[in-house]
Amino acid sequence: MASCLRRADxxxxxxxxxxxxxxxxxxQQAATTYLQDHPDVKIHVFDSxxxxxxxxxxxxxxxxxxxxxxSFEEVVPLMEQAIQATDLxxxxxxxxxxxxxxxxxxxxxKVATLMNFRLYGTADDQGKLQxxxxxxxxxxxxxxxxxxxxxxxxRGGKMLIDHADGLVAAKKYKRELLxxxxxxxxxxxxxGALCSYYAEAGGVMFGFEK
Length: 210
Hints:
There is one protein chain. By secondary structure, the protein is of the alpha/beta class. It folds into two domains: 84 residues, Rossmann fold (3-Layer(aba) Sandwich), CATH 3.40.50.10440; 124 residues, Hypothetical Protein Tm841, Chain: A,domain 3 (2-Layer Sandwich). The protein is built from eight helices and eight strands; from the N terminus they run βαβααβααββαβαβαβ. The strands form two sheets. The chain has a six-stranded mixed sheet with strand order 5-4-3-8-6-7, with helices on both faces. A two-stranded parallel sheet has the order 1-2. Helix 2 runs antiparallel to helix 3. The radius of gyration is 18 Å and the shape is globular. The model has no long low-confidence stretch (mean pLDDT 91).
């Protein structure tokens, strides 16, 4: 990773949550190594304590601050505030990979599949996945899940929705959200490789401003 830090006076790194991955520690080690040979460079590694759409939302915030001419000393605390002012919400239809990797109880995964449940949750303050509840699939599912997202703190700010082979569901969530927050800026994208693995087919992730 140290090779990625070349040719810059200021370096900002945003990693996937340290609660699920060793990326943050690896980035910290790379920064320390790089600074030994480049002591005049300013580097800060941010633990997003999240993943996917919230992490990208933070990258967009960082770009806004830099384009506005903010200094390194200004950007670091502003980004720490941004981490607190954004959140992650996810809805999963298949829990197999999470169960196989010890992220949730296998018994819960089996029951959820049998009962056609959608498990929904967030990332807690330490960046670990936290189950908030579950709803059964059906006509009222989208309304109930948007209710839960609002309870989590969404108030109509910028939102990124990522899906893993779940574009139809993502569009239904967006439509339901816009019916309540007509002026909200909501963008739909596909999950990246790692998030797709854990979200699995039908999984949807929401990164949003609180």
